[in-house]
Known about the structure:
Distance between the termini: 83 Å
Strand content: 5-15%
Oligomer: single chain
Radius of gyration: 25 Å
Amino acid sequence: MATPHLGAKRAQRRKASVTRIVRGTEFPLRAAATPKGETPLPANAGANYDTDWARRFPARVARRVWVDTIARALVRYYAQPTIKGVDRLSELDGPAVFAANHQSHADTAVIVTSIPEPWSNRLVVGAAADYFFGNRVTSAISALFVGAIPIERTALNRRTIDKAVGLLRSGWSLVIYPEGGRSRDGWGQQFRPGAAFLAKQAGVPVVPVHIRGTFDILRKGRAWPRRARSVINFGRPLDFYEGENNRRFTRRLQAAVEGLADETATGNWFAARRRLHGADSPGIEGPPGSAWRRRWALTEPPPDASPQASSTVSKRRWPYV
């Protein structure tokens, strides 16, 4: 009869054998263990996710097929987009940063399917590293189907900055949302200088873009989209003035987007341009006050809005933004 001591030893040996077998099956399903004394490699997720594979030929073909078929069909059904200002891109020669206001997750699909060639052929989207690259599954989906690259929203990250600047310098255009996040209530937010910084580092112009109507399609907190009309309005490319810093350029960029919003809302290009040059364009940030006051202000008709402009977007009077 085995003694309790010998039985305990046998149980320990069996447990150790099982542990060795389990560890042996973890790789490559999981990352290999880091040897003692060595610094662990950074996880392939978040800002560290490597998206180079998504810009190789097979992935680009798959993304083009996806965008031109399923994504475009979904955008036509849910967003019913009207695209304006494409003629203003005739002055653009080479890559650029497309900087747009951010209403909802529908924005990316709408803008990616609206940007014309040749920029749509080499296009990446700056996406929040903490949201779209939280794990390997969402990272792979974002990189393959959207062409996304991770961008840190809360702190400077040299890796993500160098990647974005390097892509711009090598001929890729970038879609980015200077607000840093989606709208909470239908109004916009103050622009951050990230788009200006990347454009200045890469030496490329910035195209202001205004998107209207997507808040009603997939507003923050909504799980399923609903149909609404949208308008995408491209502005003239902006270059840095001599001696202009990132913050001044960002204010000029936001003013350009506000001018596009005014133009879309009123349907009066001349009056909108006059207000823009007079620094009198309606702001995208909305009036100060309580949530109900801001929401009520969204239903106010824009100044000198034409009946054609109102009917183009929706039967209702939608917000400036």
